[in-house]
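>> received
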Amino acid sequence: MTPCISDVQWAAYKVQGYLRLDLVMDEGELEGLQQRIDEIMMGTAPTDYDRIMMQLDRDPAVGGDRPGPQSRGHKAATLCYRKIQGLEFDPLFLSFMQKPIFREICKRVYGAGTPVSCFRAMFMNKPVREGTPLIWHQDRWTALDIDPLITIWTALDPATPANGCVKIMPGSHDRLINPGHGSGFLTQEQAETVVAENEIMDLEVALGESVLLHNHMLHSSGTNNTDIARRAFSACYMNAATRSRNGDAFPILFGEGALQPELV
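>> returned
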């Protein structure tokens, strides 16, 4: 049976800005996604690396203790990547993104019959005993003419406070704190103010579980102090009418012209 969202759950999401979807994986799907992302990092995956943006968590070329540049192509055979984008062009990750429950969520957010596209489909990683801290911010991009509103975040490893799970401020999605910043990052003064005024929650997520997040909810994350990596897949869904500052459109996930796993 396909999981569905109840009206009670949806009402809670609108207040809190997040909703646990629990396990939406098919049998064997988690293992497949774990194996595929490790293969992509090691450079052995049957995928088009020219379409994928990759960023090392630590790059000796820029000092060794900072992330490397985010650019197209494979960088090194290592599991110490911070971010990999463009996974909508991988058939395994695309199939996962197009699950019926995610289509249902998009209908609730953007309206039935509205085509939905992908702003970004990315792997976020806190490697063992590594990880780049992420300061408080709201996900929004002034280079887009319509704000993408939702992200579905899926744990490919258990996400805990010890290994750098996301920290959130439930209910903080109702207003923009720093609307002029291109990616929604807060200044230090703004961050200190919101931390003092709001409840902070460690968003612990079990292995294979997914969480719906409103993009405007304040969130941050720390580093990984354990011997367990914190791998996650983050997919941002938006109205397909959205255009970039240059007029570019984005790959369609639901609606006419949608990407098809067997063709990517």
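>> Residues 29-42 form the longest helix (14 residues).
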